[in-house]
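task queued by scheduler; priority normal; single chain, no ligands, no partner chains; default sampling; output format set to C-alpha cells
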Amino acid sequence: MIKLERELTQIEEEIINNASLVTEMLYQSIKGLRNFDKGICEKVIKSDEKADNLEIDIESRIIRAIALYQPEAEMLRKLVMAVKINKDIERIGDHAVNIASNTIKSLDLGKIEFPEEIDKMFNVLTVMLNKTVRAFVDHNSELAREVITMDKEVDELRNKGIRRIIQENQKENSTEKTVLLLLVFKDLERIGDLLTNIAEDTVYIIEGKMIEHKYR
C-alpha cells in the first residue's frame, strides 16, 4: 500500500509538470495571437509533441500501477480519475495549438485589433488553471468547486465577444478576421470546459461525488 501511495504521488507530480507545460503553451499562444508572431506560434505547435508524450507516459504509468498493485476502491478511483484529468490537460494543450495554428494561417491579415473579451477570458482561464492545479495537488474540493462556478464567467465573456465581432463584421465586412476570432473564442471556451471537467473530477476523487461533465 505504501508503494502504491508513493507511485500515486509521483504520478500526480508528473501530471502537474504536464499542466505547467500546457499553461505555458496557452500563454504563448495568446502572446503569438496578440502580436501576430509566427515564431512564437511555431514554438507552441512544437511543444505539443512533448505534451502528447507526457500524457502517454503518465497514462501508461497509471495502467501499470493498476495492474501491479490491484488497488481497492478508493485508490482505484483516484487512479482512474487521474487518467481522465491527464487526458483533459493534454486537450487544453491541443486548443492552445489550435490558436497558434489559426494565427499562422491568418498572418496575411496583418496585425488586427482584438476584442477585450479575449484578454478577459484568458485572464479568467489563467486563474481557473492555477486554482485547478492547486485543488488537485492539495486535494481541495472547495477550491475545485470555485473553478466550476467560474466557467459561467468564461461563457458570458464568449457570448459578449462573439456579439461584438459579428456587429463589427457587419460594418467592416472582414470575414477572415471574424472567422479567426470566432475560432479563438471557441478554443478558449473549450479550455474553460476542460478545466471545469478537471475540477469536477477532483471533487469526485476527494468526496466520491460525481458531477456530470458539460464537455467531453
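post-processing summary
- Residues 23 and 129 are 8 Å apart (CA to CA).
- The helical segments are 2-35, 38-69, 73-105, 116-138, 141-172, 175-207.
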